[in-house]
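Researcher: Sequence of DUF4920 domain-containing protein follows. Predict its structure.
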Amino acid sequence: MIKFFQTFAVVCLMAFTAFAQEPVSAAKGVTYGEKIDAKNLIPVNGLSAKMGNNDILAAKIYGTVTDVCTKKGCWMKLDNGDGTTTMVTFKDYKFFMPKDIVGKKVALDGVSKQVLTSVAEQKHYLEDAGKSKEEIAKVTKPKKEIKYEAKGVLVL
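Model: Prediction complete. Tokens:
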């Protein structure tokens, strides 16, 4: 009887995994994660000034998506308007972004943090984005940057 339940549990797990769905397409008004509204937003390129000397800041931001993890949608980048981007991850990896979110304007609610990103982590993100081996090899130093952890994302 125990073997039956073990087998049944494995079959159920495989079925749930096989039928797991991609995130809903990034249409205007779609929310991922917690529901948020588009009130009191600051532009993503204003995070640095808003943070000042603080290492952490809870803030609602908006920006345009320039890149998304091509494997699973587990991160995205927002355009800072100066050739740089802000990396966005999702709280506890409870939700993911669809691949068609690139180019869309989004509002986010969450926490920004000033961090030092290791070479290994930078290379990992470049691999997730499908970048070339040559581009990945160019990363040789840790990078000080602002990262954002979103608990909710709203497509504007």
